[in-house]
């Protein structure tokens, strides 16, 4: 196969050039050529395209082989350069070879040209491949340096004797002396200085162990490290050296430590929050708390004081020596310790100082207390005690410790407060229970008494009813007889006899009235709310009642005026007449001659009830409870200009048989209405209003009394 060959001929003689090409063709080459005769042409040719070989005449009219060689070296190209010349001296040929020519031969010996070219081509190829290999090695080295510099870990490379040969950028950053301080020194010396490596570290450094599981610290480096070593296998040697990878894990350890601390704190808070049961009593609860704290946090001593009757009393403790416990048992408010507690802020110390009571200070030193921290127990701003923790170690309680202890103290204070409240509540509950039981018993008694009273009342009413009824007939006969004897018998009587007969007559009239009143009362009390009512004009009923008095009134100069709304009101007419009669009778009785009595009535809206409620409540406690619900009411009033009723008597005059003590209140009449009444009239009125589900009350208006009757009108 023809070998393609690009030949640059530096030759002024075209014929010589052709001879050389023919020689090459003969040897199996397929030359492609360019012939140049001077430097500029040659430079252009070299810049223009790649050449396999340069065949150069030694001497040209405007150029020479040494010039051409120089030019070629300037370009930096590696092209075999063969001097093919006429006759040149041996010295010149050697000089050309020294200057970088690959070979030289005489034009007369062209038969050697092909083998020379072939050898030069081969050597050029070898040089190129060597250069490629060298470049590849160099690149690989640079790449690996870049990789190791990019790694965040420290990488140190040593020889088999563990002498450092190389280190990445990170490693140089960690050692202050830089590369000079590392290179050529043994790795153990760099890491440990004059200190003896630990056994594990030593094994690792000697390459016996590729990894150390736990983190290491080195005297010559700050922080903590995770280490691994890898042997370098090289040219059949198993351990031509080692690569040490040292990872800085200080940050991770810091984070882990931080996590461990907060886990412990959280766990403590959790235990405190959920583990404590105040039901077992505050002492047990405090003991449990201290126990939990000792378990979770590192401490040897702890104690809790609470204020009790002005003194700070030790309530619970753990780990204390008896003399110290005794000295701290009960502290007056004036001691430094109590005063500090009362300030309501945490206080800490690094040795027992004079903040402790004198005796306690000595005992604390004896006990081995070194560092301590006290946090007050507070409910809002009130300080109820103090919790102290302490240790034999020399440490200072930092903000974080104080915060944790303060939160625990806060919870403890709440628990103690809860317990106290719970205790008080329990006491109150027990008291309440006792009262309830007593009340229950009393209620039973009242119930029984009520039943008995009810029974007695019925018996009494029955009795009164029967008795009154039985009395009515003989009284009527007596009255009839006495009246007949007095008025129509024409019997001669001495004045004394007449007086006796008149008083018998008056007494019997009074007796008849009493019997009638008693009968009315017993009937009303037996009666529930009325069911059969008749829509009546109350003004009309007032007139009817008034007419009963026309005769006796004529003897007293008292004006009675009746005027008001005539709207129908559902009532029992006979009862209403009876009520009005009683009120009218009282009005006349307690009004001096020349006075007036007014009977008025008006319809009221339900909304007006509110305005009269305070007044009526003096007579009916639950008013308007008990009053029939209705849209409208009828207010009937009997007003007189009489002597009035003292305010403090007004409620009681509705009681049975009640009469105002003052004799003036028995009557103001000189001719009629003189006698003291039975004291039942107003009770009957009240009874009548009860069966109407209405109300009666009295007010004074400065010159007399106003009796009011309130009737429900119903839905209309
Ligand atoms: P009596 O039948 O004794 O009059 P009442 O129950 O009707 O009994 O009245 C009780 C007492 O109320 C009377 O004794 C009287 O002192 C007083 N009283 C009643 N109405 C009037 C009144 N309009 N003015 C002054 N006092 C009155």
Structure report:
With about 725 residues, the protein is an alpha+beta fold. It folds into four domains: about 5-130, Rossmann fold (3-Layer(aba) Sandwich); about 150-250, PAS domain (Beta-Lactamase); about 260-425, GAF domain (Beta-Lactamase, 2-Layer Sandwich), CATH 3.30.450.40; about 525-715, 2-Layer Sandwich (Heat Shock Protein 90), CATH 3.30.565.10. The protein has 21 helices and 22 strands. The strands form five sheets. Strands 12-11-10-15-14-13 form a six-stranded antiparallel beta sheet, sandwiched between helices. It has a five-stranded parallel beta sheet with strand order 2-1-3-4-5, with helices on both faces. A five-stranded mixed beta sheet has the order 17-19-20-22-21, sandwiched between helices. A hairpin with a 2-residue loop joins strand 10 (about 300-310) and strand 11 (about 310-320). Helix 10 (about 250-275) packs parallel to helix 15 (about 400-485), helix 15 (about 400-485) runs antiparallel to helix 16 (about 495-525) and helix 19 runs antiparallel to helix 21. The longest helix has about 90 residues, at about 400-485. It is elongated, with a radius of gyration of 67 Å. The termini are far apart.
Task: Record the SSE blueprint.
Blueprint lengths: L2 E8 L3 H13 L2 E8 L2 H10 L4 E4 L8 H11 L5 E5 L4 H9 L4 E4 L6 H38 L3 E6 L4 E4 L1 H6 L3 H5 L4 H6 L6 H7 L19 E10 L2 E12 L1 H26 L6 H15 L4 E8 L2 E8 L3 H6 L2 E3 L3 H7 L4 E3 L8 H10 L3 E9 L2 E10 L7 H89 L7 H32 L7 E4 H10 L2 H6 L3 E6 L3 E4 L1 H17 L6 E10 L3 H9 L14 E9 L40 H11 L3 E6 L4 E10 L2
Parallel strand pairs: 1-2, 1-3, 3-4, 4-5, 17-19
Antiparallel strand pairs: 6-7, 6-9, 8-9, 10-11, 10-15, 11-12, 13-14, 14-15, 16-18, 19-20, 20-22, 21-22
The structure holds adenosine-5'-diphosphate.
């Amino acid at each position: 196969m023809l070998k393609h060959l690009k030949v640059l001929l530096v030759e002024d003689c075209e014929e010589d050039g052709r001879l050389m090409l023919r020689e090459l063709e003969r040897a199996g080459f397929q030359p492609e050529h360019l012939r140049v005769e001077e430097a500029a042409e040659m430079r252009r040719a070299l810049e223009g395209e790649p050449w396999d070989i340069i065949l150069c005449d030694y001497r040209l009219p405007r150029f020479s082989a040494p010039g051409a060689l120089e030019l070629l070296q300037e370009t930096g190209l590696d092209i075999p350069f063969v001097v093919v010349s006429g006759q040149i001296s041996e010295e010149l040929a050697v000089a050309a070879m020294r200057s970088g020519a690959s070979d030289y031969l005489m034009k007369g010996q062209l038969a050697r040209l092909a083998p020379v070219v072939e050898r030069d081509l081969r050597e050029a190829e070898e040089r190129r491949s060597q250069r490629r290999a060298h470049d590849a090695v160099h690149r690989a080295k640079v790449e690996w340096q870049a990789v190791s510099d990019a790694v965040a870990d420290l990488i140190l490379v040593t020889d088999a004797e563990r002498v450092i040969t190389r280190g990445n950028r990170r490693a140089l950053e960690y050692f202050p002396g830089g590369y000079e301080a590392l290179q050529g020194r043994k790795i153990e010396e760099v890491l440990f200085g004059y200190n003896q490596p630990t056994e594990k570290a030593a094994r690792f450094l000697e390459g016996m162990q590729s990894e150390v599981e736990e983190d290491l610290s080195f005297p010559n480096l700050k922080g903590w490290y995770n280490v691994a070593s890898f042997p370098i296998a090289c040219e059949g040697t198993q351990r031509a050296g080692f690569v040490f990878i040292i990872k800085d894990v200080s940050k991770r350890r810091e984070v882990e430590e931080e996590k461990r601390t907060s886990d412990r704190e959280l766990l403590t808070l959790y235990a405190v929050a959920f583990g404590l049961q105040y039901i077992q009593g505050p002492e047990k609860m405090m003991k449990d708390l201290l126990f939990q704290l000792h378990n979770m946090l590192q401490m040897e001593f702890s104690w809790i004081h609470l204020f009790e009757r002005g003194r700070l009393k030790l309530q619970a403790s753990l780990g204390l020596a008896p003399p110290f416990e005794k000295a701290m048992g009960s502290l007056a408010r004036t001691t430094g310790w109590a005063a500090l507690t009362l300030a309501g802020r945490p206080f800490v110390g690094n040795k027992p100082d004079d903040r402790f009571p004198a005796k306690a200070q000595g005992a604390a030193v004896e006990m081995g207390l070194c560092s301590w921290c006290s946090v007050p127990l507070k409910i809002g701003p009130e300080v109820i005690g103090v919790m102290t923790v302490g240790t034999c170690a020399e440490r200072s309680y930092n903000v974080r410790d104080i915060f944790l202890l303060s939160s625990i103290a806060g919870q403890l204070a709440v628990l103690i407060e809860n317990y106290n409240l719970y205790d008080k509540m329990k006491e109150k509950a027990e008291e309440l229970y006792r009262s309830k039981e007593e009340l229950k018993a009393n209620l039973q008694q009242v119930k029984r008494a009520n039943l008995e009273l009810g029974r007695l009342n019925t018996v009494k009413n029955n009795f009164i009813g029967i008795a009154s009824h039985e009395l009515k007939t003989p009284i009527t006969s007596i009255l009839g007889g006495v009246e007949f004897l007095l008025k129509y018998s024409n019997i001669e009587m001495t004045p004394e006899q007449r007086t006796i007969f008149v008083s018998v007559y008056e007494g019997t009239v009074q007796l008849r009235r009493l019997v009638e009143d008693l009968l009315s009362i017993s009937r009303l009390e037996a009666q529930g709310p009325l069911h059969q009512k008749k829509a009546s004009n109350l003004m009309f009923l007032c007139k009817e009642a008034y007419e009963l008095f026309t005769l006796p009134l004529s003897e007293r100069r008292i004006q009675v005026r009746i005027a008001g709304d005539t709207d129908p009101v559902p009532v029992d007419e006979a009862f209403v007449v009876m009520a009005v009669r009683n009120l009218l009778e009282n009005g006349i009785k307690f009004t001096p001659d020349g006075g007036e009595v007014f009977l008025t009535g008006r319809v009221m809206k339900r909304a007006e009830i509110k305005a009269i409620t305070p007044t009526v409540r003096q007579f009916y406690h639950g008013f308007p409870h008990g009053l029939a619900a209705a849209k409208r009411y009828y207010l009937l009033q009997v007003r007189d200009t009489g002597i009035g009723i003292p305010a403090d008597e007004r409620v009681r005059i509705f009681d049975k048989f009640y009469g105002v003590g003052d004799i003036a209140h028995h009557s103001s009449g000189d001719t009629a209405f003189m006698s003291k009444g039975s004291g039942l009239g107003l009770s009957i009125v009240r009874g009548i209003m009860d069966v109407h589900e209405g109300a009666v009350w009295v007010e004074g208006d400065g010159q007399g009394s106003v009796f009011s009757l309130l009737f429900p009108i119903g839905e209309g």
